[in-house]
Fold this sequence. Notes:
The protein has 136 residues and is mostly beta strands.
Amino acid sequence: MADKRGINPYALGRAGNTAYGAIPFMQVVTIASTDTAAVKAFGNTPVPFQMRVVRAFGYMTQAGSASDTVVVQRVRSGTTTSITNTADLSVMSDTDQFDFGQIDNAANVLNKGDTLQVTPAGGTGCVIYIECLREA
Length: 136
């Protein structure tokens, strides 16, 4: 019978200045049209390990309207910092896809205990995919 324990994630190494690589994963955050405050990733809990955000993109679940925007952010010790640029959703149609054009390399590393969140403005629905690398 085959061993069903899988690969020990520590055997894959870590990102950073090593030659081993990292463990990629994705967080999916759904923004409802009624969401006006930040929606937190990881089931509304702090980040469980050090990680790096490498890409963020999404798609609309309804058409945008005037002043609809969304941004991916990090919260550390009560200070909120944008990881991505703010995406303008006001001209988007239902089912349109969009990409955050910028990732701030000074803010894209989250430590264990930080919060990863998506903050909408306006009142449109969308789904955000956040590609990450587990570093430690």
